What we know:
single chain, signal, five-stranded antiparallel beta sheet, 3 helices, Immunoglobulin-like, alpha+beta
Amino acid sequence: MKRFALAVLPLALVAGSALAQTSSGLWNYHFQNGIGQYLTGEWDSPTGGALNLSCRRDGNVAIMAQIKGQAPRAGSILVLSTSSRAGSSDSRFATNAQGSAVVRATSPAFRRLWANLRANDIVTLRYADGRTSVQSLAGAAKLLPAKPCG
């Protein structure tokens, strides 16, 4: 019995670390308190980046980004550049005092971003000060519904 337990333990450790590594680049969805959050990356991480699209009941969407655990500077422009072998497309959003952008889910700019997130391979988060982070869009086409925040 001890041999079986010792043989299974290393497998469990390998499986656990593999799950932690693969989940950082995939899209996740959470719903809480009337807000549906679509996110990728590692939030509050000192390395890498993260993108969070929070769909609110009132029809607004908060676009929140972090690079190395930091939001873009308040009042700056956040650029989200989606790309694949077919080309790239930039979406620009002005940030508020908290460093996030709030737009209507039905706005042409957000609908275009949403469609591009579903159709492309990567999204590059670009801050006005030049910092960038690249996030995989693997799984976005399956997780993000065709209608933005639908």
